[in-house]
């Protein structure tokens, strides 16, 4: 995968809209966002570009009968512990870290541990790139690569840039740069008769926003109001998403970049599932992460896993579940504060979400089955 720093404009919308801190904030304040939220008039590396045909041409990677998809770990090694614990109670499983497993881990020891574990040579542990991995492994720092839409505050974007800039410095002094730069953007698995695509953003870009919860059709008006989405930011038509999945040859598409968890089904039986964040709170009042579990429909889940299922659906014989990652929040907060204390860019943008989840989002809203 080329990581050439050829740039092309990828402005998403005219900008005059109210600014907001979208998915990563605990409230609809304009002060927080995701390592995946775009700058208005952002520039996107050409290497971020994708299209459905690239996924349809990607050979399937062999996996175990259960696959965990864990996007947005954000350097939380306690979440990594909990994902491993869940897997130890489950059927034989593979895990796919689909990008942004780095973010808050600029402290060298934590950076080394997270990347050493995620990138370990293990056929059941797979990884794809997020914008964070692309940017920190580039020769020189330019931005967080978030491609924020115009409705996100420039202050949010500049704080994300500062976080990734710090991480870039850590990465440059580590041995992980070449492995991070070589990560694929796409992955495909065949599981229980279903074809599953794994991307970071959407089928058009590694940092795409067309599959953000607030952009889904039919629109969640309460969510869009909470985020201050302007009317000019039209939802992505459901028929367009279903058509892209068909073109990509997948029944289920897993993504994460926009960092607000949801699961939506489409006419024809396909589904998009965004796990939000594996390493940070996703729902009102909870600091727990979320991963997507893919397994065979029917039968009982192991108790340790069943008790953590937030919502789920089936696509043919494939069971698609959003599973809570109940990591050690006290330890995580302590580690976060040791690196990003009050007044720091990460604390300013993410502390409320780390301690209280996303105040305007609940699991009942995230399950969009029709
Ligand atoms: Fe991202």
TrEMBL record:
Segments for region (Disordered): 21-44
- Domain of life of the source: Eukaryota
- Low complexity bias: where? 21-43
Q: Which InterPro entries match?
A: Metallo-depent_PP-like (IPR029052)
By what name is this protein known? Uncharacterized protein
**Organism of provenance:** Tetraparma gracilis
